[in-house]
Predict the structure.
Amino acid sequence: MRVIETVSDFRVAERKAPRPLGLVPTMGYLHEGHMSLAHRARADNATVSASIFVNPTQFGPNEDLSTYPRDMEGDLTKLEEAGVDLVFAPQLQEVYPPGFDTHVDVGEIATKLEGASRPDHFRGVATVVCKLLTIVRPDNVYFGQKDAQQTLVIKRLNADLNLGAEVVVMPTIRDSDGLALSSRNAYLDDGDRKAALTLSRSLDLARQLYDSENHDAEKIRAQMRNLIESEPRTSVDYISIADIETLDELDIIDRPALVSLAVRVGDVRLIDNTLLP
Ligand code: AMP
């Protein structure tokens, strides 16, 4: 496995790499969710690359950029074990050199849900992913369903700018108690960790209600909210039941729907989602 820090070195390696080439973009502090993407990339491609870059432009001014967990050594061990060939781990200045002033704005799909709660978040995501796709030039790029809206934003970006990658979306990996794995779970103390289970439980509740012929989206949102707010450490940012392609909110679940939510547990903002049916 080679660890490459500069764009110019990566380009040389990419030109020599046997195709197909897969890319797993990450912000590091890797867990089994990330590794499931790496394993799938290993199965699909002759060459597997992963990137580790905590992208400052996707964090808001009051968000957790300065405390975002990091473990480069541990991450490299995990990637090596997964059979990754190339790791792109640039420093900040390599990605955003002095004078950098071009940004990628994906339209409507990026304005809802996470986009509404975190202005400029998807601008930062789209800009860095656009750069990664043009530097790495992968045939296949791997993302997690955990960040459901992000996958829609990236598919839009990839299609609209003819970036030429196949976008592969992999299922959310969870702990045995249902909590979706996230690098941010590292911030949770024992009490928070317990309270955080309300996210996956509320998604399970939505599915149970849907399966027992309750397709009224507002009633389901209300019951999800009740469940989450029964836990005093939580506060709901949003609960959404939306068309899976447009993310327009639904009154009745009469088509494939994304049930998604963002909840603060103490100071930690967590997201999760499931698809219906
Ligand atoms: P991050 O490092 O948080 O930017 O995540 C990098 C990639 O891993 C993104 O495509 C995420 O959607 C994906 N990912 C994060 N958590 C999970 C999970 N629990 N299951 C599957 N994929 C995940």
